[in-house]
């Protein structure tokens, strides 16, 4: 569709001549309960000024039909004005009123106004999701972040439903079977941040109050909602509790009163992402409403997201990037604030920085080593570029770099900079230079070189210690070697660890220094006894891959699990207010995983470390990462000849730890899930079946609905679940989640027919919502079934361009990523990927990027296999 992929140049041009004074948007969704009705009525009236009277412009709109277009009282013919993506208008006056009346489509892909019917009770639910540019699927607008305006929404919906939007409602007018909700005008915001949530949602209400410095009080009505059928599982008190702690904390830090009046948080079905920071009306994926037991890592993750979205009310909503090049200006900050806030707001999640080091950074390292990596401040030519940049660089690397910036300028200068930034740019748009300006003011440092090294280049450095000693075992030199395309300034801590009397590896020394250039000497280390373990980037201040010298690596092989940094242990030199328990061990785990991914440690050695030490890992989030990584090590990185044995070792280990775990603990649940993921032999599958039927029991392990589905998946993938059994489980759990799990189980069956059906469900129809596309691709792509799926590699490459052209980008991204034949991990598949890339230089850049990244995963797996074989 020409014009659908708005370019930066076009956006700049439009912003250079237009200023928007306001939108009136009327939506009529009374047709929503009728599933046969595909559209709803949408009427936009936008009032705007033009600095070049007589000029042309366009509104963005993706709608099946446009009924009328009226500019300054003059009716334009929709047949000529509307081209399917844009409403073109010419002859602008200095002051304009433009009205567009359209029939817009209900979405099944989570883009625009999504419609969902609950299988439990038949109720219909609607919500919007727009970022970066899907507001135009719901109403005509100037779809770019720097044309901010106040929006006034009016929504007509079935009488039994409620409606929420960014602003509070002012009137609700009943008429027949419908009610019309009139909302107050919003503050000036960007189009992608507008929102409506409509339906018979269950809602919990609360209230936040804060005395401000000027003697007035800030009152914020709070609410949290979810589908009615999820209400019994909805722990709104916990959600609203974190919300209030966050509001306290961000007010203290940001010194700018929450600007959007009320704060609603809607947990919505079939949501494509984690959450979205719509001002005053945040939307979350409803999987954050836990209907079965989950580990504390899941609660921490949800609290992190709540704080991430809340930080956006300032970073992103109050002050917004001018164009998507500076997406990091909001996402890196929000990602950083998610973890920082968990600690600062005194939530119970005191391990937030361990999780960050272990999980967020793993995402960044992976993304930053793709050939498609990019600087944190990116070059975003158009909306398709923008769509793919919600990635590990923009979020996790950016947040890591901000953490390094805090270490570099100090937290006082950092937050004082943020406070000035909000006051100076409130309700405006910014670029990199605006942020550097305030930080230079408050830190007194020239940050241009820092920004050039960290924000405007790509790639990750590896830091390696080089230790020489004298004949008495004292350090004569400790140098830090830096490699990578660009050498950066790193503020780091070097941890020195030795065995204590009980055999624990404890920190006996810590040296903080600035690493610059390719070799930096830590002068303080001279004369110290050579420790068993030298841990670079201890305390995780910078963003880098950590390597080890030979002696340290040998220490890890025999004692990784013995690293003990519990500050409550007296006399261990561990004390320090900001040192979360388990961080050093998490850093060591992260480092050995990077070695494995880089083909520097054989996959079977990594698996051996996990089997030996994971049972001692106290941090539940780290343990769950180890499970996922060990599985990847066996599936992709191990010599194929060893895969079978590796898989058996993992399953045996899972069973052993499951039996030894504390009854009822999170660790027990994590090991039970891991058993389900690895079970293959008769003994393991027998236990799985026994747990499902109740004939086997593990003390303290509750086999609840989500765990049941994990166990069924193990049986289905092994060909040991009868179709009737799976259907019976769906009957017992005929919910949205149940449908997803059931779909995945069907796709996971090890038969040619099952693979063909899953493939066809995704490829031959565009009816599936993204959640069911994912369920099919995940079930289809079970690595151990690579012989069954091999014959789909060739059709996959043939179909790529057609899929990209025909599907919405959300769905296309899932198909391209989910069906890539990664499990084949052979030279032939790599050659097929290369042939496609060589033969399609003109394919959409975003599509090429996805294929390049998956191809890189495959090439990495082959390198790791070669290491494991050697
Ligand atoms: Zn965000």
Task: Describe the overall structure.
There is one protein chain. 42% of the residues lie in helices and 21% in strands. With 870 residues, it is α+β, with helices and mostly antiparallel strands. The protein is globular. The structure holds zinc ion (ZN).
Summary keywords:
870 residues; alpha+beta; 8-stranded mixed beta sheet; globular; binds zinc ion
Write a compact overview of the structure shown.
It is built from 28 helices and 28 strands.
Helix content: 40-55%
Question: Mean pLDDT score, rounded?
Answer: 96
Q: How many separate helices?
A: 28
Assign an overall shape.
globular
Give the low-confidence spans: 569-577
Fold blueprint:
Elements: H1 8-17, E1 18-28, E2 39-50, E3 57-60, E4 65-71, E5 74-76, H2 78-81, E6 86-89, E7 95-105, E8 112-117, E9 124-129, E10 151-158, E11 162-165, E12 169-175, E13 178-183, E14 196-199, E15 202-211, E16 217-226, H3 236-254, E17 263-268, E18 275-276, E19 281-285, H4 296-312, E20 320-321, H5 328-344, H6 352-368, H7 383-388, H8 393-409, H9 411-425, E21 429-430, H10 432-443, H11 448-454, E22 462-469, E23 475-483, E24 490-499, E25 505-515, E26 519-521, E27 533-538, E28 545-546, H12 550-559, H13 583-597, H14 603-613, H15 620-637, H16 640-660, H17 666-678, H18 682-693, H19 705-717, H20 723-732, H21 736-748, H22 752-763, H23 770-780, H24 786-789, H25 793-806, H26 809-818, H27 827-839, H28 845-869
Parallel strand pairs: 1-10, 16-17, 17-19, 20-21, 22-28
Antiparallel strand pairs: 1-2, 2-7, 3-6, 4-5, 4-7, 8-9, 9-14, 10-13, 11-14, 12-13, 15-16, 18-19, 22-23, 23-26, 24-25, 24-27
Helix pairs in contact: 3-4, 4-5, 5-6, 5-8, 6-8, 6-13, 8-9, 9-10, 13-15, 14-15, 15-16, 15-17, 16-17, 17-19, 18-19, 19-21, 20-21, 21-23, 22-23, 23-26, 25-26, 25-27, 27-28
């Amino acid at each position: 569709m020409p014009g659908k992929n708005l370019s930066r140049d076009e956006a700049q041009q439009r912003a250079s001549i237009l200023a928007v004074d306001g939108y009136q948007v009327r939506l009529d969704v009374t047709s929503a309960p009728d599933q046969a009705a595909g559209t709803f009525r949408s009427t936009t009236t936008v009032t705007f000024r033009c600095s070049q009277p007589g000029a042309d412009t366009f509104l963005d709109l993706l709608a099946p039909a446009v009924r009328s277009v009226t500019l300054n009282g003059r009716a334009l013919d929709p047949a000529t004005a509307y081209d399917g993506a844009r409403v073109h208008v010419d002859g602008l006056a200095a002051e304009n009123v433009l009205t567009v009346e359209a029939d817009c489509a209900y979405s099944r892909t989570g883009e625009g106004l999504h419609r969902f019917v609950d299988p439990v009770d038949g109720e219909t639910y609607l919500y919007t999701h727009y970022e970066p540019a899907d507001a135009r699927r719901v109403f005509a607008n100037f779809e770019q972040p720097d044309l901010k305006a106040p929006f006034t929404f009016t929504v007509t919906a079935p009488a039994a439903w409620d409606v929420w939007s960014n602003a509070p409602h002012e009137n609700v007018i009943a008429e027949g079977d419908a009610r019309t909700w009139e909302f107050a005008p919003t503050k000036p915001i960007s189009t992608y941040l507008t929102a409506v949530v409509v339906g018979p949602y269950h809602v919990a209400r609360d209230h936040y109050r804060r005395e401000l410095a000027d003697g007035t009080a800030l009152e914020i009505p709070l609410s949290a909602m979810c589908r009615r059928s999820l209400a019994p599982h909805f722990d709104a008190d916990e959600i609203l509790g974190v919300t209030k702690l966050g509001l306290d904390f961000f007010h203290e830090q940001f010194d700018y009163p929450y600007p959007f009046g009320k704060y609603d948080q809607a947990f919505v079905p079939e949501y494509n992402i984690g959450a979205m920071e719509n001002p005053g009306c945040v939307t979350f994926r409803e999987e954050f409403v836990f209907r079965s037991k989950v580990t504390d890592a899941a609660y921490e993750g949800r609290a992190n997201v709540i704080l991430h979205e809340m930080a956006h009310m300032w970073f992103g909503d109050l002050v917004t990037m001018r164009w998507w090049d500076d997406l990091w200006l909001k996402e890196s900050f929000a990602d950083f604030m998610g973890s920082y806030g968990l600690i600062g707001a005194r939530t119970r999640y005191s391990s937030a920085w361990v999780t960050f080091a272990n999980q967020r950074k793993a995402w960044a390292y992976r993304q930053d080593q793709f050939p498609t990596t990019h600087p944190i401040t990116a070059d975003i030519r158009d909306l398709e570029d923008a769509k793919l940049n919600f990635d590990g660089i923009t979020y996790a690397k950016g947040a890591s770099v901000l953490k390094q910036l805090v270490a570099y300028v100090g937290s006082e200068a950092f937050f004082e900079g943020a406070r000035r930034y909000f006051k100076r740019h409130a309700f405006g748009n910014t670029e990199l230079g605006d942020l550097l300006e305030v930080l230079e003011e408050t830190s007194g440092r020239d940050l241009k070189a820092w920004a050039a090294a960290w924000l405007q280049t790509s790639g990750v450095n590896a830091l390696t210690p080089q230790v020489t000693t004298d004949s008495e075992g004292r350090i004569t030199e400790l140098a830090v070697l830096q490699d990578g395309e660009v050498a950066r300034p790193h503020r780091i801590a070097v941890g020195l660890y030795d065995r204590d009397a009980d055999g624990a590896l404890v920190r006996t020394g810590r040296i903080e220094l600035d690493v610059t250039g390719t070799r930096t000497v830590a002068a303080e280390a001279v004369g110290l006894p050579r420790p068993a373990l030298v841990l670079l980037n201890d305390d995780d201040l910078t963003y880098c891959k950590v390597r080890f010298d030979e002696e340290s690596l040998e220490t890890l092989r025999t004692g990784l699990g013995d690293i003990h940094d519990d500050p409550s242990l007296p006399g261990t030199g561990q004390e320090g207010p900001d040192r979360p328990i388990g961080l050093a061990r998490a850093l060591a785990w992260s480092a050995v995983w990077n070695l494995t991914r880089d083909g520097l440690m054989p996959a079977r050695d990594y698996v051996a470390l996990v089997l030996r030490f994971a049972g001692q890992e106290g941090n539940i989030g780290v343990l769950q990462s180890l499970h996922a990584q060990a599985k990847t090590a066996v599936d992709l990185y191990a010599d194929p000849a060893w895969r079978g044995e590796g898989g058996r070792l993992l399953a045996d280990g899972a069973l052993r730890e499951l039996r030894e775990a504390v009854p009822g603990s999170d660790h027990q649940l994590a090991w039970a899930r891991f058993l389900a993921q690895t079970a293959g032999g008769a003994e393991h599958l027998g236990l799985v079946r026994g747990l499902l039927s109740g004939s086997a029991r593990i003390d303290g392990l509750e086999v609840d609905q989500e765990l049941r589905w994990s166990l069924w998946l193990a049986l289905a993938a092994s060909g040991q679940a009868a179709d009737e059994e799976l259907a019976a489980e769906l009957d017992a759990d005929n919910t949205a989640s149940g449908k997803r799990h059931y779909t995945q189980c069907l796709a996971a069956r090890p038969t040619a027919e099952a693979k063909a059906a899953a493939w066809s469900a995704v490829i031959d129809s565009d009816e599936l919502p993204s959640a069911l596309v994912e369920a099919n691709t995940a079930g289809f792509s079970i690595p151990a079934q690579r012989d069954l799926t091999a014959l789909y590699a060739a059709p996959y490459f043939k179909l790529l361009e057609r899929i990209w052209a025909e599907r919405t980008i959300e769905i296309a991204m899932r198909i391209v990523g989910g069906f890539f034949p990664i499990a084949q991990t052979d030279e032939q598949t790599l050659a097929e990927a290369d042939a496609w890339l060589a033969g399609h230089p003109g394919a959409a850049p975003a599509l090429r990027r996805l294929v390049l990244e998956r191809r890189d995963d495959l090439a990495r797996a082959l390198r790791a296999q070669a290491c494991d074989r050697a």
